[in-house]
Amino acid sequence: MNMKKNTIICALLCLCIIATAVLAGCGASKTDGTSETTASSDATTAATTVESTKTDGIDYMALVNKTHALPDDWEEKLETVHMTNSVGDDVEVEAKAYDAYLKLKAELEKDGVYVDLDSARRSVAEQQRIMDEFTEEYGADYAAKTVAKPGYSEHHTGLALDLYLIIDGKDVVENEDMIKYTDIWSKIHANLADYGFILRYLDGSEHITGYGYEPWHIRYLDNVDTAKEITSKGITFEEYLGTYTGGPVSIDYGTSKIYTEDELKDAVIQIKCQFAFWGNVDLKSIRYAGDEKATDEMLKKMNEVNPDGKYTQVAEFLMDFHTPKDVGDTTLKADSDYTDYQWWLARTADSGWEIVTFGYGY
Fold it and tell me: How far is residue 136's CA from residue 54's CA, in Å, rounded to a whole number?
């Protein structure tokens, strides 16, 4: 990912990646350890060597996300394969996932679709190294908000694969370029379940997964029937496992003379990504509070909350949700309805939306 120094001020010291206008996603470009995307590029699979790690078996249905950590013994049990892509990048993948990927790749090539592996496994130690580097350079607060917490990235499993496209013999690796090829991604997605893969981050499910839509990020389950069931239902892995049981979400962008709907959508995605940290909280609705709330007075307040922001625009959104009986360590009341819960976001003219504060009282 191309790094920006994000100055999000939130009540939770958690990750909420800057959205890009093209992707409308949380953590949408490559390489820095902040999102579920990493970097590389390629067309043909080159030298492959098996890493001799003894395995007693991993759980291919293990859930690793922003609220579920990698199992403690995972890395000791993991058996991996290394492959070198066409630009010389080393990519490490769980052994069975790699075999399934090769079969998927071969099937796609029959239809004139060419892909290769951009990234797969990233160790907890590597994620910690990235965290330490950012902490040293930018401070602990910034690092905590912009780098995925070590132990909570699905890429630790070796079962999460990021693909990239090869179009007319040329590698297409930048997210803003890949996202344009919707027809090609549709063909890829249509074949995933036949080889035990699912599309991991669905459009509109950011409040569940914590990440924006990533057509390149697939997850291996080692079970074709399960993959087909999840795909046919159009649900997330969290919903299938029952860790999120909420219903549909109503989004109302209203009518704005200040912002386009795409700009407001970018803001909503940021809110939904942050909301995902709350676990199984049933999100009911998000709505734009209206241009009348985007005042100079509120802009001044947001810049007081975060003096480094230098914001020039502000927007308020209102949220309705219901909490579960177990709310964990959050300050939310259990089994309660929350209405008109405030989210304030701000930005400069040349940057993405940042969540400045949320809750009641503004």
Answer: 35
Over residues 172-230, the pLDDT tens digits come to 999 999 999 999 999 999 999 999 999 999 999 999 999 999 999 999 999 999 999 99
Cβ(228)–Cβ(240) below 8 Å = no
The H or E element containing residue 124 is helix 124-138
CB atoms within 10 A of CB 102: 16
pTM of the model: 0.84
CA 273 to chain centre: 8
Q: What is the b/e burial string over 251-289, where b = at least 16 CB atoms within 10 angstroms of the residue's CB?
A: eebeeeeebeeebbbbbbbbbbbbbbbbbbbbbbebbbb
Q: Please provide the DSSP assignment of 38-59 as one string.
A: -----SS---EEE-----S---
Rounded to an integer, what distance in angstroms lies between the CA atom of residue 245 and that of residue 294?
A: 34
239: its two tokens:
């919903």
Domains of the chain (ranges, CATH numbers): 48-241 (3.30.1380.10), 250-359 (no CATH)
Q: What angle do CA 215, 216, 218 make, to 5 degrees?
A: 100
167, 178, 171, 198: which is closest to 37 by C-alpha?
Answer: 178
- Rg, Å, the chain Cα set: 20
